[in-house]
Amino acid sequence: MPDFFIHNFASDTAGAIVEMIKKEPRDSLSSTIRLQAMAIIIELSKKHVVKAMGSHQRWVLLRTFLKSVFSLPLLMTLQVQGVIRGISGQYTKVLFIETLQTLNEMLQSLILENPVPAELERILQLMDSWMQSREACRRERAVWSSILLLNFVATEVKLDEVSPFTRLGHLVAVLGIRCGDPVKAISSKAAGAVHYLVSIAWRQKIAQLDRKNVEWTEQRNKEFLAAWSPTVVCNSPSRIAELFGVYFNPRERTDFILTVMDGLTNHCNNNCQPTAEGLLSAMVNSGGTKVEKAADLVAGVCSRLDSVQQPSSRTLMKKLVALLAGEAEHLDTVISCLLDYSFPTDSNAAELWQFLSADPALGGQVMENLVVRLQSHHSSEHQASHTSAAATCALYEMISVSKSRDATTRLYPQLLMALLVEIHFSLGQSIAGDKVSGRESSRQSLHTSSAVEAIKMLLLCVGCRSELTVMEKEQGWILLQSPQDHLHGVSLLARAMVHYACPETTRMLLDLVIPLLDRGDKKHRLTMMAFFVELLRYEEAKKLPHPDTLDRLEEWTKHPSPVFRSLGLRGLSILATQPGKVEQVKALLPAILWGSDEMDDGSILEAISAVQNLLQSLNGSELTSVARKLIPLFDAVRPQVRSAAIMLFTELLNTVKRRQKPLLQEEVTRSLVPLLLHLQDEDPDVGKRCQKALAGCFQLLGWSCPKQINSKKAWHTHPRVVDKICQHSVLKLKSVSDILLQCLDHLQSPQAPIRRAAAIFIGCTVQSSEPAMVRQEKELILQSLSGLQQDPDSSVRVSVSRAIQQVRDGGRNQSPQTLGARFRNLFCCLTGQEERENAPDRDLLGGPDLSQSHRWDSGGP
Question: Is the distance from CB of 210 to CB of 176 less than 8 angstroms?
């Protein structure tokens, strides 16, 4: 008969039988259809037709028969149902027994048709779920069929010697667990099944040995089987693991352990957990680390641990992971697999890492491995990953174990740097300004907070309580987690460590950081740079080679990245405080001031700080150069920059020696108008610093200082204040044109108060000057003022309109009395006398000049 015909016939027959069996009721037994169908399969197997069906179709056919027979109710229940239907109880009993016997005969015939270990494994594996059923009758049927089949194979069938078992470990574990079944009939049958399986397995092993060893092995096998009777196995199921632990190959041992771990979970019924626990313990103690794939076992532990409630079982599973990690060949594999389950961290993953850390020697190896992984990731990748986040969480759990203190202390510098860089990596997308989804943002936030918590735990473990206090008090942890302020947080931590840490620790950190300054990703370098810069405050840092450190810092100040420039300038600022390095840093003053017109605000603030530390060592020409660079910064957008620049300018004025004053007079004179206008700055701190700076300017120039510069009143509501300041300036400054041109520049200021002040000052200057002195600039002034007539701020528009009228009028309509009054006012100003400014301003209301109707006393405003 052609093969294709046999295959089609077998497939059609199998399909028809399956459909017929599915229609049989599972809660009753009244017909012989099951018997007849199984009898057909037995006859077909004798003619090798079933084998032609193919493995999948045979699997479906066998599964259908097992389900139809094993799921039948108890015999007593079947008899009662039969009586109800008019069927005698004896008939039902006979039919039930014959059905079970025929099922077992069918299984035996399938083995005879295809006598290979794979067929035996396939049949027994289909019985697995029935052996673990909640109902004892189903378990007993499955175990009984298993023992009959194994007895038949052990005594009547010679399996193919070339084909090996592929699932032997799993089968032994399933039957071994049943040896602890609370139902005695089931446990004893399972023990017998194990006994026969041992015999079959040993026979296969003997067949693969050299002929000279066969007789000796056969004799040993007989002695072994005699000693390992079913009674022994039933009384001590754990000895099964001792027996097969020697026989199993790595793959079989892995399968055995995984199956036994299933018996420890809540999903395993019938109180077999103690038996499974004994089997696992025995296998682990008899070579449990000699497995094919350690990753499979670790993954098996991680996936099952949540379903294991017994503390002893959980400890045993964690012990297995620790034993695997203790083998050098498995350490990397174990850690990699654990990391897959460690982010986000749950209690089970945390327990595993803590258990590993409880062994000081093993914990040190694992922590070192994790640190190396983080360092390698930082050197080769450009952003955080699941692995690096998991390693961070793992380190936190391990550091938190008290027994890991020695390993943590030994690895402290590497741990600290790796965790700091990891924070920067976790913030990568936020720093870059990339759009992040809500879920990704949540994971990123969890990652960052995990790294911060790990650093906290690290500092606590090594006894850095003062550093922790500083970080808490100064909100350093918040800074570390902020994309904008992360490096500020790094710097704060480094400063605290320099201040409180022991010299040996700081020296170790310095030795670790220096080689990393030029390696890895930009994020990696920036974290190292921020830490290194603060370590320059450390006493031992003074012993570093001057050229190397200074060259590196100078290179950073010229880097296109604003952050690099800022860190380089901060480093120079710190070195400028060290007496032995002042001259070397001062030689880099051009680098410090270089590009200040284009530098970002952060770099400018660091440059100001660096120059501030050098002030006392600068000569006259250098001070002049600094002043020239500072004046444009008075108009910076950020109030912090304006305030810092004006403060440094004030300190510079106080530093100037008598012989240096002539060199600075031009720059000081050029600073007066910006400083006067910024008295009206919207930031009160800037206005206060302008007052101090102007006092210094007037002192350096040898002029008396009008008290009006200390007035807090707004110029547009108290024009007498600005009028006196303006008269004083016009009298002292030789070039009215310079004053007006500087005011024109400030008409474009982003601050409404500065635009308003510039317009008011222009009007007052023109009013206080001879017409000839402003004739050339008059059209330019009017044109510039006209551009602000549509200003969004109403007070600016009012001040501009008044200034335009004052410029158009010039001095030509001023009567002698008015001019005389103005000179008297000017005289009062120069001699310290002042007007009573609280009086209403009648000039604004169109009234007569108050200078003609009032005499001013010397009281202040």
Answer: no
Helix runs in 702-793, H state only: 719-732, 736-746, 752-767, 771-774, 778-786
Give the type of residue at 85.
R
Please state the rounded mean pLDDT for residues 81-86: 74
Phi, psi (deg, nearest 5) at residue 722: -70, -30
DSSP character at residue 307: G
Confidence of residue 594 (pLDDT cuts 50, 70, 90): low
At residue 856 the predicted structure's pLDDT band, cuts being 50, 70 and 90, is very low
Query: What is the value of pTM for the model shown?
Result: 0.77
CA distance 737 to 711: 26
- The answer to whether 228 touches 198, Cβ cutoff 8 Å, is yes
Q: What is the pLDDT of residue 230?
A: 76
Which stretch of DSSP H or E encloses residue 106? helix 89-113
Contact 339, 394 (CB under 8 A): yes
What is the predicted pLDDT for the residue at 753?
Answer: 93
Q: 71-92: string of b/e by CB count within 10 Å (b at 16+)?
A: ebbebeebbebbeeeebeeeeb
Predicted pLDDT at 813: 39
Decide: 607 and 575 in contact? Cβ < 8 Å: no
SS (H, E, C) 468-517: HHHHHHCCHHHHHCCCCCHHHHHHHHHHHHHHHCCHHHHHHHHHHHHHHC
- The answer to whether residue 269 scores a pLDDT higher than 70 is no
**What is each CA distance from 241 to 170, 234, 244, 247, in whole angstroms?**
12, 13, 5, 10
| Length of the chain in terms of residues written | 861
Using CB atoms within 10 A of its CB, is residue 678 exposed (0-12), middle (13-18) or buried (19+)?
Answer: buried
Is 861 in contact with 834 (CB distance < 8 Å)? yes
Question: DSSP alpha helices (H): ranges in 341-427?
Answer: 347-358, 360-380, 386-399, 405-410, 412-426
Q: What is the DSSP letter of 518?
A: T
Q: 349-389: per-residue pLDDT in tens?
A: 999 999 999 999 999 999 999 999 998 888 777 677 888 99
Which phi and psi (to 5°) does residue 774 adopt?
-120, 5
- Three-state SS for 601-621 is HHHHHHHHHHHHHHHHHCCHH
- The rounded Cα 352 to chain-centroid distance in angstroms is 21
pLDDT in tens, 802-836: 999 888 887 433 443 343 444 344 334 333 334 33
Instruction: Give how far the C-alpha of residue 160 lies from the chain's centroid of Cα atoms, to the nearest Å.
Output: 56
Does residue 435 have a pLDDT over 60?
Answer: no
For 468, half-sphere exposure in the C-beta direction (CA atoms, 13 angstrom radius) is 14
What 3-state DSSP class applies to 849?
coil
> Please, what is the end-to-end C-alpha distance for the chain in angstroms?
124
288-322 tens-digit pLDDT: 678 888 899 999 999 999 999 899 999 999 999 99
What 3-state DSSP class applies to 663?
A: helix
